[in-house]
From TrEMBL:
Residues 393-420, 421-448, 449-476, 477-504 form the C2H2-type domain. The gene is LOC120052958. Residues 88-118, 132-181 are annotated as: Disordered. GO terms for molecular function: DNA-binding transcription factor activity, RNA polymerase II-specific; RNA polymerase II cis-regulatory region sequence-specific DNA binding; zinc ion binding. It comes from Salvelinus namaycush. Keywords: Metal-binding, Repeat, Zinc, Zinc-finger. The keyword Repeat applies. InterPro entries: Znf_C2H2_sf (IPR036236), Znf_C2H2_type (IPR013087). This is Zinc finger protein 583-like. PROSITE patterns: ZINC_FINGER_C2H2_1, ZINC_FINGER_C2H2_2. Pfam families: zf-C2H2 (PF00096). Coiled coil: none annotated.
Length: 515
DNA sequence: CTGGGGAAGGGGCCC
DNA sequence: AGGGCCCCTTCCCCA
């Protein structure tokens, strides 16, 4: 009997153990399944989130495209219009203005227009922004300001995507914290870093130069001189327009400067100097001799010639400015300067648009007259040696050499965008008098160059020369891939696309093909 | 695609 | 020294 009891007890314990084991097994299975289930749920949720995000992006994209479609197709960055026109600015008005000649409806519909007839009675100023950032900001990027309203920080704020508070009255605008003297290196390093990103400046910052390049270079549309010019000339009106005053290279570089409301346009003017145009020159740096940069209320800053030579070779501590990557963030409070900037500080002169070519001339004179002619002299290298053809004078912007300072002056119009010579018939403007003279043949019909073998006449000698290949059969442009020859360089360029299968590739072809 | 003209930009040379 | 002119390059447009 006792044995039976023990047996039962053992059986019971065994059963209990088995039951426990079974429960444990079941729990384990449930746990495992639950874990798998949870994992699946989590993954599904993640996928849902990703899809939702994707959907939102798509919607955003569609919305943006709608906005773009509803807007004029080529809203231009305001920088684009900071060419000559900025010179018309009323210095005391503190506004920038673009000039549209009366009776010349040559602006495209989408062009930002500000009418300033040169009498200082500008009525409105249009700022049009185009950038990925601003587009992302949604519609309403076109902003108009009436006279006196323009906040000089406006463009920079917009460009940087930073929230902008419109200050109605520039005179009541709180003073900007611009203690330059405390952070010149930071400024410069920002600038240099940006330039370096652009791949056009292979040298570290100069300690005291103060122009600032900001914005996202990747968003910039780099146009060649020709590009911009053409773009501006393909407006509704095929005739000439003030659009040609735009600085060729002055495109979306994002250069901008801190503007004192009192000074208005000059900063924009100076910004144009440091535009893609000059930066694009073979990676050459710029040379700036000593320029006193005077900020109102601030201690004067000096551009020291010894410290501001920027050349193609790295001259300084690269890591030094790389440390300031963070400072690349656009800082609207940073005052920026350029030689021109400095000049305007020294000699603020009204540059209201005059019916003649005066405004460009005035501007340019402002740039080069005061001390700049002397400055050009200052760049003279080896002044006492060498013949007259030796290039002893160098462009302050691209370091290109010339044999006399006047050539430097003329050349620098390329960078500055000054076109002092205007056509009386169509208001086209030119940087060189001869170009104007050639242009005016369009109006006069003068074609002084006639072909000796046919009746054709030409306004430009080079066109005659090119035409004469028709008679001579000369085809100086040969395809390197198929021996085909062309009389027109453009023909070769187009032909090369046949080989590459590309439609838009550009193959620069120089006259080296000419034999 | 090819051929060709119109026109502007800009550097160099000469007087 | 400065202006006028030449020349080259480039882009655009059209047939």
């Amino acid at each position: 009997m006792a044995n039976c009891m023990v047996f039962h007890t053992q059986i019971a314990s065994i059963m209990e153990m088995l039951a426990n084991a079974a429960v444990a097994e079941i729990c384990k299975l449930v746990d495992d399944d639950y874990a798998v289930f949870r994992l699946e749920i989590t993954q599904s949720q993640k996928e849902n989130r990703a899809l939702r995000r994707k959907l939102q992006l798509q919607e955003l994209k569609v919305a943006r495209e709608r906005v773009l479609a509803s807007r004029p197709s080529s809203v231009k960055l305001v920088n684009r219009y900071r060419g000559m026109a900025r010179g018309e600015g009323n210095l005391t008005g503190g506004h920038r203005s673009l000039v549209k000649p009366v009776g010349h409806n040559t602006w495209r519909d989408d062009q930002p227009i500000t009418v300033d007839e040169g009498n200082g009675t500008s009525t409105q100023h249009v700022i049009v922004i185009e950038s990925a950032d601003t587009e992302a900001a949604g519609p309403g990027v076109k902003q108009e300001r009436s006279e006196g309203e323009e906040d000089p920080r406006h463009s920079s704020d917009i460009q940087t995507g930073a929230p902008h508070v419109v200050t109605k009255d520039p005179t009541t605008t709180p003073a900007q914290p611009r203690d330059i003297s405390r952070t010149p290196n930071a400024i410069l390093k920002s600038e240099t870093e940006t330039l370096t990103r652009l791949g056009r400046l292979g040298c570290p910052p100069t300690p005291r130069s103060e122009y600032l390049l900001y914005g996202n270079p990747s968003q910039r549309t780099v146009l060649s001189h020709r590009d911009s010019g053409d773009a501006l000339q393909t407006g509704n009106d095929p005739t000439c327009s003030y659009a040609t005053e735009m600085i060729p290279g002055d495109v979306p570089v994002g250069l901008d400067t801190q503007t004192n409301p009192i000074r208005g346009d000059w900063n924009q003017y100076s910004s144009s100097v440091y535009s893609e145009g000059f930066l694009d020159k073979k990676g050459e740096g710029l040379i700036v001799d000593e320029v006193t940069v005077k900020e109102e209320g601030d201690a004067p800053l000096i551009w020291n010639e010894d410290e501001t030579h920027l050349r193609g070779q790295s001259q300084g501590n690269t890591s030094d400015f790389l440390d300031y990557r963070e400072s690349l963030e656009p800082n609207p409070n940073i005052a920026t300067h350029s030689p021109l900037h400095a000049l305007r500080d020294r000699e603020p002169v009204s540059t209201s648009m005059a019916p003649s070519d005066s405004h460009g001339r005035i501007l340019f004179d402002q740039v080069l007259n005061s001390n700049d002619k002397a400055r050009v002299q200052a760049w003279e290298v080896g002044a006492t040696s060498g013949g007259s053809k030796e290039k002893r004078f160098f462009c302050m912007f691209c370091n290109k050499g010339f044999n006399c300072p006047q050539k430097v002056e003329i050349h620098q119009r390329v960078h500055i965008g000054v076109k002092p010579f205007s056509c009386t018939q169509c208001h086209m403007r030119f940087s060189q008098a001869w170009n104007l003279k050639i242009h005016q043949r369009v109006h006069t019909g003068e074609k002084p160059y006639s072909c000796s073998q046919c009746h054709m006449r030409f306004a430009q000698t080079c066109n005659l020369k090119r035409h004469q290949r028709v008679h001579t059969g000369e085809k100086p442009y040969s395809c390197p891939q198929c021996e085909k020859r062309f009389s027109h360089q453009h023909q070769l360029k187009m032909h090369l696309k046949v080989h590459t299968g590309e439609r838009a590739q550009y193959y620069p072809q120089t006259s080296s093909n000419e034999s």
